[in-house]
Design brief:
heterodimer; A: 130 residues; alpha/beta; Rossmann fold; five-stranded parallel sheet; 5 strands; 48% helix; B: alpha+beta; Four Helix Bundle (Hemerythrin (Met), subunit A); Alpha-Beta Plaits; 5 domains; six-stranded mixed sheet; 20 helices; 23% strand; flat
Chain lengths: 130, 639
């Protein structure tokens, strides 16, 4: 896990900071943060991170929202490790993003352990396949 | 399916059915009660999901049909008429019956399709929700069956067919999506069919924590298990080679499972016990220390502490067995509605104190007697609306069930404001039939009336039913109550109504008892049966015919020499005074002659082993602090 690079896409600063703290403490590097989907997709292209956390409910930015961001990223990089961050009410959206290639999801509110567990699973699978 | 899920299913569906019935009665009173409609819709929805999980397709279909009906109400597409209500009530009953039949595992005789057809008929023409959705599920099922068949044909040396059961962690959030993720992963290495519950139901979270599917894959069992277990929130992935005819689960050992077999316990109660256990282990380590230091003063202190702890622990443990009376009473509004409607009477039910808790075994036993009493009240107590109007009463009768706590007992009063009983006539009848003797009719008191009414076979006689205003089975009621250490009393006023008072012990596990000595042994007499204890001198005991009696105040009380009755050797007291325990027996009071009365004590009732179970006059045993075994006397049957 050490040194894996994480991109955090979330419109809420609070959530970005929370996730950042959790993953940094666990030894990851946060290579980028994006406050909207459009920015997130662009950063993914530039940074090619090992892992992305993506808030599924984000305001639309030039027709780009959470779901389209997932589609865009997995379209360009089918091996992308996307973890969806979602509230309980967004079942359909989470389902759809999983269909589009997101690897797993975590439901707000989550604990540090839960998030790291999901990350470990997703990265574990990634390395196994490659 | 795992037996624990099966048990959980029945326990929970019973609970939901009770809620359903409660809401139905509310709904009938007020057809615009949206809350009741929503409640029932939600309950049916949940039941459908649960039943489908268990593969009880008939139940699932029936719940589904009812769900559709209530969806119709919710959307105001369907009107609630009394005819519609009847169909719904019948279907709810059918659901209960069917559940019971499945549970008892003795074959299902109820034809669900009949009920579903009737439900469909109440949906207005052109209203196709029900038809469509029902068709969809049944068609879906056929398809999945076909799918499984198709996969079966593809099994060869490279491809295995496995059945998989996934169990999620209880803390799993968005389990629907989680299930979806599992299926997606599984599709990565195989073909999937026979998903149960259906994928739609999974997505809608219409399942508990587990679901099943069949997978055709070139991977081996180990790979599939590992791959699926790795998914987050998965507690267990059970993978086994597909067996076209799965054994239908182990049959329950006990076929008479109508009783409360499992129950929910509030977490705080368990926490309390855990706390006490913690303190107990502290006390234990203190004792170990004291043994080393031989510190007498601290030993005494710790012993007191331990005593207190054990007492609280015992109290808490007992509370685990408690359930609110509402567990039984919630069924009653429905029962009363049906009964009174059937005979054209109009009756309101008032329940108070249903939150009071009772030992679940007592609760099991008391349900039937209560139903008997209520049935009697409706059949014979409450007059017809015409009669009531003529008597200047509200044409609508009233039955009240009032539960209260009184001095270590629970008292349940069942009263009606019907025509009351004619005590004189009843006593007269009793006398004619030789149940009571002539001089006993001189003073009219309710206990004697009750004795007549509960004489075996008396109340079942038709001509007497008409007179007494009371019907079948009062003797059964009284017997049942006495078996669990309870008591039945009666109050009635002609023209005003009748009240039956049921006094029940809080629990069967611990009773208050009077400890008495006879010969070398100590015996326990349940305090519930005891009226008082007196001391008399030998010459106060007077022989009458072949019996002995004492006169206590103005009452003549027959004496039973317990030692003789139970064939125990007794030691007469030195001062010539004889201890007599006055007990309230089955038909009359009795004075039990004992050697010595020790005093009151809480005793834990232990049943006797089956080989000595039917010993006359003995209800059980208990163990004293010093290890002595004490028999608990069964006063009702001692003579």
């Amino acid at each position: 896990m050490e040194g894996k690079r994480v991109l955090i896409i979330d419109d809420a600063l609070f959530m970005r900071n929370l996730i950042k703290d959790i993953v940094i403490k666990a030894g990851f590097e946060v290579c980028g943060e994006a406050a909207n989907a459009l920015e997130g997709v662009e950063q993914y292209r530039d940074l090619k991170p090992d892992l992305v956390t993506l808030d599924i409910v984000m305001p639309k930015m030039e027709e780009m929202d959470g779901i389209t961001a997932v589609k865009q990223i997995t379209g360009e990089d089918p091996a992308a490790n996307i973890i969806i961050v979602s509230a309980l009410a967004e079942r359909r959206l989470v389902e759809e993003s999983l269909t589009c290639g997101a690897k797993d999801f975590v439901v707000k509110p989550f604990t540090a352990e839960k998030l790291l567990e999901v990350i470990a699973k997703v990265l574990g699978e990634g390395t196994k396949e490659s | 399916m795992d037996k624990s899920y099966r048990d959980l299913f029945f326990a929970e569906s019973q609970e939901y059915l009770r809620e359903t019935n409660k809401a139905l009665v509310q709904l009938e009173k007020n057809p615009n009660d949206d809350e009741a409609i929503n409640t029932i819709f939600r309950l049916m929805h949940t039941l459908k999901g649960m039943a489908a999980t268990m593969r009880y397709d008939d139940l699932a279909d029936l719940a589904h049909a009812l769900e559709d009906v209530f969806d119709g109400f919710r959307r105001k597409r369907l009107k609630l008429t009394s005819a519609v209500m009847d169909v719904i009530f019948e279907s709810a009953d059918a659901f209960a019956t069917l559940t019971e039949q499945i549970k008892e595992d003795k074959g299902v005789s109820l034809k669900v399709t009949d009920y579903i057809k009737r439900i469909k008929n109440i949906l207005p023409a052109g209203e196709t929700i029900s038809h469509q959705s029902l068709k969809k599920t049944s068609k879906g099922k056929v398809e999945t069956g076909d799918e499984v068949d198709r996969l079966k044909k593809l099994v060869d040396k490279n491809n295995n067919l496995f059945s998989v059961e996934m169990v999620f962690n209880e803390a799993c959030s968005m389990k629907g999506v989680r299930a979806f993720l599992v299926l997606n992963r599984a599709k990565d290495f195989g073909q999937i069919a026979g998903v149960t519950p259906s994928e739609d139901d999974l997505k809608n979270e219409n399942f508990e924590l587990n679901f099943k599917f069949v997978i055709l894959t070139d991977k081996n069992e180990k790979f599939v298990t590992e791959e699926l277990s790795r998914i987050l929130e998965v507690d267990e992935a059970k993978v086994s080679v597909y067996d076209p005819e799965p054994s239908k689960g182990k049959k329950g050992a006990n076929p008479m499972l109508k009783k409360i077999q499992s129950m929910r316990i509030p977490v705080e109660r368990l926490d309390k016990i855990m706390n006490l256990m913690g303190e107990l282990s502290i006390a234990k380590s203190r004792l170990v220390q004291i043994v080393q230091t031989k510190d007498h003063a601290r030993l005494e202190e710790t012993t007191h502490f331990l005593e207190r702890l054990v007492a609280s622990l015992q109290e808490e443990a007992l509370k685990l067995r408690l359930l609110p009376v509402s567990f039984v009473l919630d069924n009653f509004p429905r029962l009363i509605r049906d009964l009174s409607k059937k005979i054209g009477k109009s009756v309101d039910l008032e329940i108070s104190g249903s939150e009071i808790e009772l030992d679940r075994i007592i609760l099991d036993e008391v349900g039937d007697p209560l139903i008997h009493l209520i049935r009697n009240a409706i059949d014979h107590g409450i007059e017809s609306p015409q009669e009531r109007t003529r008597a200047g009463k509200n044409p609508k009768g009233k039955i009240a069930i009032d539960v209260s706590r009184q001095k270590g007992h629970i008292v349940v009063e069942v009263s009606d404001n019907g025509k009351g009983m004619d005590f004189e006539k009843i006593l007269h009848q009793g006398q004619e039939r030789g149940i009571i003797s002539i001089d006993e009719t001189s003073g009219i008191d309710s206990d004697k009336v009750l004795d007549v009414l509960t004489a075996p076979g008396f109340s079942t006689a038709k001509e007497i039913t008409d007179v007494s205003g009371r019907g079948v089975g009062l003797d059964i009621v009284r017997n049942k109550l006495e078996v669990i250490g309870g008591r039945l009393e009666l109050e009635s006023q002609k023209g005003k109504g009748t009240t039956f008072i049921l006094t029940l012990p809080l629990t069967l596990a611990i009773i208050k008892a009077m400890m008495v000595v006879m010969g070398k042994d100590i015996y326990a007499i349940p305090l519930m049966n005891i009226r008082e204890t007196v001391k008399v001198s030998e010459d106060e005991i007077k022989p009458i015919k072949d019996a002995e009696v004492i006169r206590l105040r103005d009452e003549i009380i027959p004496i039973v020499r317990l030692g003789k009755e139970l064939e125990i050797e007794t030691t007469p007291s030195e001062d010539g005074q004889i201890s007599v325990v006055i007990v309230e027996g089955r038909v009359k009071n009795m004075g039990l002659v004992v050697d010595k009365v020790i005093g009151e004590q809480d005793v834990v009732v232990k049943p006797l082993g089956s080989f000595v179970k039917k010993v006359k006059g003995v209800a059980g045993a208990t163990i004293l602090g010093d290890g002595r075994v004490v028999l608990i006397l069964d006063i009702v049957n001692v003579k």
